Amino acid sequence: MNATQTGLLTGLALGLAGAFGGLGAFLIVLVLGAIGLLVGRALDGQLDVNALLGRGRDR
After folding, report:
1. 49 near 39, Cβ under 8 Å?
2. Of 9, 16, 46, 58, which cross-links 41 as Cys (Cβ 3.0–4.6 Å)?
3. Distance (Å, rounded) from C-alpha 36 to C-alpha 1?
4. For residues 18 and 26, is the Cβ–Cβ distance under 8 A?
5. Rounded to an integer, what distance in angstroms lies between the CA atom of residue 59 and that of residue 44?
6. Quick check: 59 pLDDT over 60?
7. Contact at 8 Å (CB) between 46 and 4?
8. CB-based contacts of 43, cutoff 8 Å, min separation 6
9. Which residues cross the membrane (predicted)?
10. Interval 15-58: pLDDT, tens
11. Whole-model pTM above 0.70?
12. What per-residue string of b and e applies to 19-49 under the rule 16 or more CB within 10 Å gives b?
């Protein structure tokens, strides 16, 4: 399992642990899962954080 998958699963697990049901729980899981996915992709090197922040690699 790579860092992307680990980050996504961690975010989903934290969302499920903090959620108690309903639409609010769905949104919590969705947001934390997305955050976990982004962190995992950044750790894998598949996401350039500097490009997202407006600073390219050419500097």
Report:
1. no
2. 46
3. 14
4. no
5. 22
6. no
7. yes
8. 3, 4, 7
9. 12-39
10. 787 776 767 777 777 788 788 888 888 888 887 778 777 765 55
11. no
12. eeeeeeeeebbeebbebbbbbbbbeeeeeee
Q: Which two tokens stand for residue 40?
A: 């995992």
Asked whether the beta carbons of 57 and 51 are under 8 A apart, the reply is yes
Count CB-CB contacts under 10 A for residue 57. Answer: 7
**What's the pLDDT at 47?**
79
Position 25 scores a pLDDT of: 73
Please tell me the distance from the alpha carbon of residue 11 to that of residue 35, in angstroms, as a whole number. Answer: 7
